[in-house]
Fold these 2 entries.
Entry 1:
Amino acid sequence: MSRLMRWLVLIGLAVLVIALVAACSTGPAKTNKLEMFSWWTAGGEADGLNAMYEIYKKQYPGVEIINATVAGGAGTNAKAVLSTRLTGGDPPDSFQLHAGLEVEKYDPEKYLQPLDSLYASEGWDKVFPKDLLTLLKYKDHYWGVPVNIHRANVLWYNKKVFEDNKLTPPATWDDFFKVAEALKAKGIVPLVIGTKEGWEAGHTFETILISTLGADGYRGLWTGKVQWTDPKVTQALETFKKIMTYANTDYSALTWDGAAQYLVDGKGAMHIMGDWTDGWFTSKKYTGYGWAPVPGTQGVFDALSDSFAAAKNPKNQENLTNWLKVAGSKAGQEAFNPKKGSICARTDCDPKLFNAYLQSAMMDWSKDAIVPSVAHGAAAVEKWATVYKDILNTFATKGDVAAAQKDLQKACVDNGVCK
Ligand code: GAL
């Protein structure tokens, strides 16, 4: 071997040894991943999440994002999978969690990280609205970083169908039934609904409860101030039963977005759903929709908020903390919400980035009475919300008012809220 070759071999060996020592001193190789778990797979939802991922990737280019999703609106399937992963010691780093009592389901003191110090260092207690901060606190701690505020009590309608038939969107249930009769006579499905995933009937019904009970009365149902035996609950059940007689007959086979497709196709006139529908319409490049509060709910904002939580003992703590910082940031929320069809949880986002519907939602949020959604984790603990949703899902098909009302009261008693 020539002298030069010998030197080269020696240098090569030295480099190898240095590399090995460096690898051993940092312990097992870092994965440099971030696993984020949600149920956002539909158009608009997935687009919004991707937009936020883009911001994260720009700031932390070396990190691989694992986008773990379990499809099913309102987290129907995702929540069960998440519970199993948390209790089984295989948590995703971060996951979707509704602000409000839903967190109780995941035994936060055992499985989640309290985020109070991050709230303080990021100044979040100053940029999130008071009402939302109150909703987010459970057992004196913050467990999730809110990314948005959604409205549940929206009546979406096909503008052309209304114009062609010289109709105006109904402001009361009496108006609704007049409009529905006129549309039915023209062979157009007056109300589109999909109940396939088991939560949509409960969603629709909470908005009807708001219309018969008002904001205070509706809130009282979840605190025990109003009993479920109240005649206004009977009235709401009767209204729900009647509106179902104007619904598409394939409702039990459709998801919320499947039902919304009726509007896009001009075959259906109205749809009661949350404002993720705005994001979904936008993702379909459909612009022929109008919106109004669900009849009888003017001045009330039926609210929910998606947040991201942090698992205890995550695989990637640093990446997770950085993700939460992006989720709570102005840049993250301005990228996410216009696509998602929600307004920022922060109060300092630029309204000009949002479409006309979302700008109207911002206005309403600032002046309406805010009530918590039960179908989306805000108003009640998950086990009560689940029973509530099951009762309404059965009711949508069976229509037994007395039986449903009795079961609703029992659910409240079983949860220790009603007597
Ligand atoms: C809600 C969630 C929304 C949207 C909707 C339909 O529970 O908060 O962000 O995803 O379900 O899936």
Note: The two ends are 94 Å apart (CA to CA).
Entry 2:
Amino acid sequence: MASSFQIYGHRGSSGTHPENTLLSFQAAQRAGAHGIELDVQLTKDLVPVVIHDERVERTTNGIGFVKDFLYEDLIRLDAGQTFSNRFQGTSIPSLKTVLEWASSTSLLLNIELKNGVFPYNSLEDRVLDLLTHYKLCDRTILSSFNHYSIQKLAQKNDKIETAVLLMEKIIEPWNYLQRVGAKSLHIEWQAVDEHLMENTQKRDIPVRPFTVNDPLQVSNLQKLGCSAIFTDYPAAAIQTL
Ligand code: G3P
Ligand code: CA
């Protein structure tokens, strides 16, 4: 029987390739992932770019905040070398570049707006405009730890799926989601339990835990009724299906 349980490559196939790069997303697709997850921030000249941290040091050879770089300077940084010399010469992609490539695939997308530390005021509009341009709204989920941003997105576009990101258990998250206007829950996998699954399934709320790198846990979460998981190793997770 075909499974409706989905595997999303977290920051692409970030266990095997430099995270949030086109190479990583292409590796997740080759691995057979149903979807990819990626993080967006804004440059100084307001270009949405795909990078996890507010600062560039951990994943590139540069120094400073993403928000202080002009796009043309940011893409000169090497985002492959810190993972392995094998990937030297890889750039931070713009969201436009990733969406243009994704539109030629059938991948599902989860775009996480990294606007919890810096508000990046126009980020919601810029992301929605690009998704509309590439006709990707119907296969994209927008998520954020900044729930004000999720509320804003849900008010701007009630068709696109929005997800609240949570690190911990909270009381009655199904009621909280309703208050925010979000449709689904993305939650740290160890906070998933039967009580959560029983109550979300009853209300048709998709639950997608992150970041699940142990194949045994992938199977457990599938059995519990989760809709999908995020993993750094999509090839290994696909083997569990
Ligand atoms: O979207 C799930 C996960 O990506 C959230 O945490 O820190 O990996 O972006 P983080
Ligand atoms: Ca993320």
Note: The CA atoms of residues 154 and 181 lie 6 Å apart.
